[in-house]
Amino acid sequence: MIYPPPKLTAGVRGKNDKPQHSINVSLGSKKGGVMALFGILAVILFVLLIAALVIFTIAFWICMIIDCVKREFRQPNEKIVWILVLIFLHFLGALIYWGVVKKSSSVSK
């Protein structure tokens, strides 16, 4: 026995009928649209902040490597050790170098 297809009526449901799909996204409302906009702007701002932080750390690291190469140390092995520290520890090595060598040389001048 072949059953007839159900009648399709737009917007009319019976008391016990449940919707087939329940997607409730309302970008048309003012509150939802503003909140979505703020969310998107927050994500963009966060990405830009992280990118600026990465660029700053790389620039600081390169500046410390250049300073180490140009600087005259008391012992020749000291320069090699500091270059290795800067290369292998990256930003942490640059912070250590800045704290130990740069700050101590500016204090002694």
Explain the overall architecture.
The chain is mostly helical and 109 residues long. It has one domain (30-108). The chain contains 2 helices and no strands. It is elongated and about 100 Å long.
In a few lines, what is going on in this structure?
The chain has helices spanning 30-70, 76-108. It is mainly α and 109 residues long. The protein has one domain (30-108).
Outline:
elongated
Number of helices: 2
Uncertain spans: none
Order of helical and strand elements:
HH
Q: Roughly how many Å is the radius of gyration?
A: 32 Å
The biggest sheet, with number of strands, parallel, antiparallel or mixed sense and barrel status, is:
none
Strand content: under 5%
Descriptive terms for the model:
0% strand; 109 residues; elongated; single chain; mainly alpha
Secondary structure blueprint with pairings:
Layout: H1 30-70, H2 76-108
